[in-house]
Automatic annotation (TrEMBL):
This is NACHT-NTPase and P-loop NTPases N-terminal domain-containing protein. Residues 17-132 form the NACHT-NTPase and P-loop NTPases N-terminal domain. SUPFAM superfamilies: P-loop containing nucleoside triphosphate hydrolases, TPR-like. Residues 194-356 form the NB-ARC domain. It holds the Pfam family NB-ARC. GO terms for molecular function: ADP binding. It comes from the Eukaryota. It comes from Imshaugia aleurites.
Length: 1035
């Protein structure tokens, strides 16, 4: 006697539910503990679903036909037997936490023996799920009268509908978003009978189709809703056979009848409304085996599945889901498929929170956003992440960090238990994409190779020109068909999804092919990267910059690849300099130099170039005297191993000229400046663009170092050579304007210099762009010339505008020069409060980027001290002058003019603070360091001597000054008269007084008790910064 007959149907169901629930609970508990054997995973998914459907079917038995009731009893009987067997097996193989090692080993062995039995039970449970689903939606007995539903009544259940409902998945009560896709399906069916939706694996195509089926059935209760799995031929055949059986199509049980033709014919001719879903129609070989390689099938390979898709009447609708756009467009009769994109951030967030079981209030918004971005808002990846976090009580930040680390594969391979996905559909992101990847390898191996190359580059905006591989156009077409890459920027570049890139990288790592494809990516970028970078090459370098950043981070093993890397690092560093990214340029130059030092001979030109570049950047980023010394040593070494004439020699000499200029070493500066342009002259001729560029540099050095006439002569020669220059007309015009501006500036014709700098601004904006460093330099020079004409408000306004525009520019020296010009305008207007503000900002910039002990920082401190001195803040000024003096004594030498000036200023501060003895010592120290004593300095010494009443000393020093022809001579005479009178030498004093009054010399013998010193001459603010130096080309 069978168990159902013995205990009755109701009792059997109760017993089945009780045992099944206990088994499901036990399996879930062990799963959470991590001790569940693989054979139970499918049962864990299917058993709760089966229990739910049995209970639901029991409640609706009144609507079942007698045949259906009989079938239901048979299913319950089988389920009862299966769970009883499963309970018995479970007791044998399940491992408890307290089990000994021996017991665990024995149970593991038993599980291997029982694996086949458990698998058979799992298969039987799966079949029963499908059969009960069909019973739930089976039509009522033929002839049974149907009741009409009043508008106020709720929607009838699918069990009372007349049309089949063969969707093997329950509806998602928390379905989120996708309204635009659902509307697009409706719109598509308004004009055509077939609609295809396509998208990358895991994007939610099947879930959209399931939701659409339920909405379709709601709107059309009498329509058939049919579901067929299109992922393989066997399942496609089974789906059609089930349709034929439930529709009782004539001949469905005839072995000689073709089920595929039978169902297709009926669907094409029936007037009954229906929706047919072909899910996961991903393999193009199954649909057109004659056109594509056959991967083997259970059906006649001479036929293709595309022939068995019906072309029905107006009331028929066929919905296709696929990852392959080629399948989508062809099955939809060339209609454009509906592209399913990843969710929006809000949709993905709602989906994520819905899977977490009420933990929303404890979540960090930023962490959730970061995770969703890392998952590219893919629904399957989001659901997978939420399930893992929920089951393992993991934090969101830990999961995000794991995705970015070495364990990403473990997390993204983790299967998600989801009863709403087909049993043959894998439930992890990586496993989903592996299916697509395997199909691509089989259909188009070149496309798989191209995907490997793309994975090694930056994932966004990969220029098609960079992909130097065979069959690139058709390969890209295949990858785009599978939605693994998407076109961008007018179809001239492509983008690979973030997680797809990670999947491919991990796959290559498993296969041991990572190094090969990294070297291939390096070779592609190296071949495409310009070796000489001018304005025309900037767009190319910009497009390649993110890919350079990625591939220079890999570790290469072969000598050829490492040399390619070293060259690319040099070229990229040069472009970084153009963009003002000096720290990154320095790091790349250092890495390149280390590779060349290891791999090439000592006097190799490649080593010379790398040494020059690294030395140049060490100098640009120098923050101390030792940094400058190290840069100078590198540049001298580069010069010594460079052949003459060569680019390396010319550029190294150019950088050394700048270094010596900044260190106030006039002779070596001019020697190197001349050597640089003469080397270019020998290399490329007297009128090449690089020769003229370096001639301009040399002319500027001459003029700035006091050789104005020689500099002007050099600029005149440049203008004579311009007509024969090999450069463009715009570049020639730049040379001419720049030369004329230089001549006007150093002939002190600021108005004329202003005109030429204005022309250079207009031309520079046309050649480059408004924020380019060359244009900023012309603007600053233009503002400076306006200031020199006394138009201080206009100069300040122009400098402020430059300062605002370059706030986001990484070239901080532009900002520093703007602040310097504004400060000078404030000084000339005697607005010392504002001047102090700008001087402090200038000093902060220098300290931040160069350090406190850099020469330019010291100059900025001196300018601030001058501001304090002019605004009578003598104590603050004195402290700064003492620091400036200490540095200059060591950095420039005791007799350098800047050192002497600092001593004099320190003495002036002492005088204002009534520290006349200290002032005298400072003045005498300054005079002793000069070959010819400065008359103003002597005058300040007289004031300090008079204030102290040192009349004999005052007499001696005044007599010396009276013999000179200076503007301070009359002041010296009156000081001498005062000294004589104070010593009672009245006769000589009266004689000198009468002589001075006779020639109408004003009486400078002041009546005040104290004499105040005269402030020193203000330093020239002409700019000749290392970085703000316009060049029309870059080596």
């Amino acid at each position: 006697m069978d168990p159902v007959t013995a205990v009755g149907l109701a009792s059997a169901i109760v017993t089945f539910v009780s045992i099944g629930t206990r088994i499901a609970t036990r399996i879930r508990e062990l799963s959470e503990a991590g001790d569940i054997p693989d054979v139970f995973r499918d049962i864990r998914t299917r058993l709760p679903l089966l229990i739910s459907i049995v209970v639901r079917t029991q409640h609706g038995t009144d609507s079942l036909s007698p045949e259906a009731e009989e079938a239901f009893e048979e299913v319950v009987r089988q389920c009862f037997e299966q769970v009883s067997q499963l309970d018995e097996v479970l007791k044998k193989v399940m491992i408890s936490k307290g089990d000994s090692r021996l017991k665990k080993t024995v149970r593991a062995g038993i599980s291997l023996v029982e694996e086949g039995r458990i698998q058979r039970i799992a298969t039987a449970l799966r079949d029963n799920v499908q059969l009960l689903t069909f019973l739930n939606v089976a039509p009522a007995e033929k002839g049974r009268p149907q009741t009409e539903r009043r508008p106020s009544e709720p929607l009838p259940s699918y069990m009372s509908a007349t049309g089949l409902f063969l969707v093997p998945f329950s509806r998602d009560a928390r379905f989120i978003g996708r309204e635009s896709n659902l509307r697009s399906i409706d719109s598509g069916f308004a004009t055509q009978s077939r609609v295809a939706i396509s998208g990358i694996g895991g994007v939610g195509k099947s879930q959209i189709a399931i939701e659409y089926c339920y909405r379709y059935k709601y709107c059309k209760p009498d329509a058939h809703v049919l579901w067929v799995y299109g992922g393989n031929i066997a399942r496609f055949y089974q789906g059609y056979k089930r349709i034929a059986q439930l529709l009782e199509l004539p001949g469905w049980d005839d072995p000689e009848e073709s089920i595929l033709e039978l169902v297709c014919s009926w669907l094409s001719s029936t007037t009954s409304p229906y929706l047919l879903v072909i899910d996961n129609a991903d393999n193009i070989e199954h649909w057109w085996p004659g056109k594509y390689k056959s991967g083997g099938s259970l059906d006649d390979p001479s036929k293709n599945l595309s022939k068995y898709l019906p072309d029905g009447l107006d009331s028929s609708h066929v919905l296709i889901t696929t990852r392959d756009n080629r399948v989508a467009s062809r099955l939809a009769k060339e209609a454009k498929p509906i592209a399913v994109q990843p969710m929006s951030n809000d949709e993905a967030k709602s989906l994520f929170l819905s899977k977490l079981g009420g933990r929303e209030s404890n979540l960090d918004e930023a962490e959730v956003r970061s995770l969703l971005e890392e998952l590219d808002h893919l629904p399957l990846a989001v659901s997978q992440a939420a399930a893992f976090i929920e089951e393992n009580c993991a934090s969101i930040s830990d999961y995000t960090n794991a995705l970015q680390g070495e364990n990403a594969e473990e997390f993204l391979h983790e299967e998600l238990d989801d009863s709403r996905r087909d049993e043959e559909s894998v439930n992890s992101v990586f496993r989903t994409w592996k299916l697509s990847h395997d199909q691509i390898r089989q259909q188009k191996p070149r496309a798989a190779e191209l995907l490997s190359l793309l994975a090694m580059l930056d994932r966004q905006s990969v220029p098609k020109s960079l992909l130097r591989v065979p069959e690139v156009t058709t390969s890209l077409g295949v990858l785009q068909s599978f939605n693994l890459v998407t076109p961008r920027a007018g179809l001239q570049s492509v983008q690979i999804h973030r997680l797809v890139q990670r999947f491919v990288r991990l796959s290559l790592q498993r296969d041991g092919a990572t190094q090969k494809w990294q070297e291939t990516a390096l070779a592609c970028v190296s071949k495409d990267y310009p070796t000489e970078i001018g304005v025309a090459e900037w767009p190319i370098c910009d497009a390649l910059a993110p890919h350079v950043h990625v591939i220079t981070g890999y570790k290469y093993k072969t000598t050829e690849a490492r040399l390619d890397l070293a060259h690319l690092l040099c070229w990229a560093a040069d472009f970084d300099i153009e963009r003002g990214m000096y720290i990154q340029a320095l790091q790349r130059a250092e890495q390149s130099l280390k590779i060349f030092q290891e791999l090439v001979p000592e006097h190799d030109e490649r080593l010379a170039a790398a040494t020059w570049l690294y030395g140049r950047l060490r100098y640009y980023q120098a923050q101390s005297a030792s940094d400058i010394d190290a840069a100078a040593e590198l540049l001298q070494k580069a010069l010594s191993i460079s052949r003459y004439p060569s680019l390396n020699f010319a550029e190294t000499a150019f950088e050394l000229a700048h270094l010596h200029y900044d260190q106030c070493n006039e002779k070596p500066c001019l020697e190197m400046g001349k050597a640089s342009f003469e080397c270019w002259e020998a290399l490329e001729g007297p009128s090449s663009s690089r020769t003229l560029d370096n001639m301009h540099d040399y002319a500027l050095e001459l003029a700035m170092l006091g050789h104005e006439e020689d500099g002007i002569a050099m600029w005149q020669e440049i203008m004579e050579r311009c007509p024969g220059c090999d450069a463009s007309e715009n570049t020639k015009t730049v040379y001419s304007y720049r030369s004329m501006a230089g001549i006007a500036e150093f002939q002190y014709d600021a108005a004329m210099a202003e005109i030429f700098y204005a022309k250079l601004i207009t031309l520079g904006e046309a050649m480059y762009y408004p924020e380019h460093i060359h244009v900023f330099d012309y603007r600053l020079s233009h503002a400076e010339q306006i200031m020199r004409q006394g138009k201080l408000e206009e100069a300040s306004r122009l400098s402020e505008a430059i300062l605002v525009n370059c706030e986001n520019n990484s070239e901080w020296r532009i900002s520093a020069s703007c602040l310097q010009t504004i400060s000078e305008c404030c000084r000339l207007k005697a607005c010392y409060g504002k001047e102090q503000t700008y001087r402090l900002r200038t000093l902060e910039l220098h300290e931040k980027h160069l350090g406190r002990d850099h020469r330019e920082t010291i100059n900025a401190e001196e300018a601030l001290a001058d501001c304090y001195l002019n605004s009578s803040r003598h104590s603050k000024a004195k402290d700064l002058y003492e620091r400036v003096l200490s540095w200059r004594n060591n950095g420039l030498g005791e007799r350098h003019t800047d050192t002497v000036r600092a001593i004099e200023c320190l003495g002036i501060c002492h005088a204002h603070l009534r520290q006349d003895a200290d002032a005298e010592v400072a003045y005498l120290d300054a005079i002793g360091r000069q070959s010819d004593a400065d008359a103003r300095l002597l005058d300040n010494l007289y004031a300090s001597l008079r204030n102290q009443g040192k009349w004999e000393t005052l007499e001696s020093w005044s007599r010396q000054t009276c013999k000179t022809d200076t503007v301070y001579r009359s002041r010296a005479h009156w000081s001498l008269i005062t000294a004589l009178e104070q010593q009672s030498k009245m006769e000589e004093a009266l004689e000198m007084r009468a002589a001075l009054l006779a020639v109408d010399v004003p009486n400078d013998d002041l009546l005040e008790e104290r004499l105040l010193p005269t402030n020193p001459r203000v330093r020239d603010i002409r700019r000749f910064g290392r970085m703000i130096h316009p060049r029309t080309w870059s080596a």
